[in-house]
């Protein structure tokens, strides 16, 4: 249970990462991924990387620069342009549904204009899920200049699209539906220089 705790990725650039284990029974037709990050990086960095043997960017939440987030599904991506952060925690949720190909992006509890990608696609289950690095091969192939440095918390993955009130609940750290990956019952393994510490502030 990592409630009120964070992963601190201490080095920049870094070869460290955290492996997450999820129980996925069937391929994903829908998903929502949420997390909180706190960093002063201005270079590109990966936040959440979900790779299968067939596709290294099966699901990827990536920040190429301070004013952009990218969501990849099955190797294709859409870009969400955002105001540059003011040196504070940023909470992001991204969801996608196969039936419509609609991708939603929420930043700090507010929705951005929806975009479309990969309609009819299915996300594979045999996944390597990594925080802090971007996989260019299954479970590896990292480029340190895409590594994350800073603090990560409140990581969740659902095998469904969340309703707007649940998206806001995730931002406010309120009660959430059962998740495939849940911060309060996370199965993880630290690889390299990552430290679990209490959160300094809300």
Explain what the structure shows.
By secondary structure, the protein is mainly beta. It has one domain (5-198): Jelly Rolls, CATH 2.60.120.200. Helix content is 4%, strand content 43%. It is built from 1 helix and 15 strands; from the N terminus they run βββββββββββββαββ. The protein has one helix at residues 164-171; strands spanning 5-9, 17-20, 30-38, 45-52, 59-65, 68-73, 76-81, 90-97, 102-107, 110-111, 115-116, 127-131, 150-158, 188-191, 194-198. The strands form 2 sheets. Strands 1, 3, 8, 9, 10, 11, 13 and 15 form an 8-stranded antiparallel beta sheet that branches. The chain is globular and about 40 Å long. It starts with a strand and ends with a strand. The relative contact order is 0.31. Homopentamer. Pentaxin (or pentraxin) have a discoid arrangement of 5 non-covalently bound subunits. Disulfide bonds join 34-93.
Task: Describe this protein with a few key phrases.
ConA-like_dom_sf; metal ion binding; signal; metal-binding; mainly beta
Instruction: Determine the fraction of residues in helical runs and give it as a percent range.
Output: under 10%
Radius of gyration: 15 Å
Shape descriptor: globular
Give unreliable regions as ranges: none
The number of distinct β-strands equals: 15
Strand content: 35-45%
Task: Please give the CATH architecture.
Answer: Sandwich
The figure for the number of domains is 1
- Briefly note the structural class of the backbone: mainly beta
Mean pLDDT: 96
The major β-sheet equals: 8 strands, antiparallel
Fold-level CATH name:
Jelly Rolls
Q: Tell me, what is the CATH class?
A: Mainly Beta
Number of distinct helices: 1
**Distance linking N and C termini:** 17 Å
Element order: H for helix, E for strand: EEEEEEEEEEEEEHEE
GO molecular function: complement component C1q complex binding; metal ion binding
Subcellular location: Secreted
InterPro entries: ConA-like_dom_sf, Pentaxin_CS, Pentraxin_domain, PTX_dom
Subunit structure: Homopentamer. Pentaxin (or pentraxin) have a discoid arrangement of 5 non-covalently bound subunits.
């Amino acid at each position: 249970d990592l409630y009120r705790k964070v992963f601190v990725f201490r080095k920049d650039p870094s070869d460290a990462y955290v492996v997450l284990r999820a129980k996925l029974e069937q391929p994903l037709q829908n998903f929502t991924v949420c997390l909180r990050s706190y960093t002063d990086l201005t270079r590109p960095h990966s936040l959440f990387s979900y790779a299968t043997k067939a596709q290294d960017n099966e699901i990827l939440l990536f920040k190429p620069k301070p004013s952009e987030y990218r969501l990849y599904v099955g190797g294709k991506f859409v870009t969400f342009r955002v105001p540059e952060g003011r040196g504070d925690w940023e909470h992001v949720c991204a969801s996608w549904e196969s039936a419509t190909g609609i991708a939603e992006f929420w930043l700090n509890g507010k929705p951005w204009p929806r975009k479309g990608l990969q309609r009819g696609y299915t996300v594979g289950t045999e996944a390597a899920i990594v925080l802090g690095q971007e996989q260019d091969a299954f479970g590896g192939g990292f480029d340190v200049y895409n590594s994350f440095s800073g603090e990560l918390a409140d990581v969740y993955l659902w095998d469904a699209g969340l309703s707007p009130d649940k998206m806001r609940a995730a931002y406010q750290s309120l009660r959430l539906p059962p998740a495939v990956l849940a911060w309060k019952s996370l199965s993880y393994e630290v690889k390299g220089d990552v430290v679990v510490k209490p959160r300094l502030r809300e």
